[in-house]
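Why does residue order matter? Because the sequence determines the fold. Keep that principle in mind as you read this record.
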Amino acid sequence: SRTSIRTMALVVLTFVLIALFSRFGSHPLSTSTTKSITEESDKANDPAAGIQRKIQPVDCAFLSALEDTVRNRRQSILTYWNVSNYPNFLSMMNIPTQSWKIQKAKYMKLLLEANTEHLEKQLHGNSSNSLTFIAGFSGSSVTAGHDNYFHEAFPQVFYESLQPVYRAMGVNF
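Structure:
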């Protein structure tokens, strides 16, 4: 049904946002940044340390904006789905914990590495100002939205839900 597909899409999105958020702190609502992000390297002769010093101010502002966006999107989803009153719907996906951790790690790694690589290329003048991330989906006609309105199809819900997060990362989605 339309509702169950939208629910599943938002459950997936919730976990993706939590995964992205967990990159910046041990608790999803933490506002602190890690020392590795805020401290400069002591290795003055290391070329990577130079890059770290150059991107540090941009990186910290980027992390702060991203953290706020993720927090707002996550809260929006939790409020929309009334999770405080219906917490068990989050377990409906029935994915083994280890598989879910691997899936989250792969997604975070892909997106964050692409962004880091793009920033490094910009510092060396080898890249445009925009980074594009393309998500593809495969599945049944239901995935494509044939049984729903277009705005309720999984790819569209995924896009609408994650677009603000990607925008905060400076990524065209």
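The first helix runs from residue 2 to 22.
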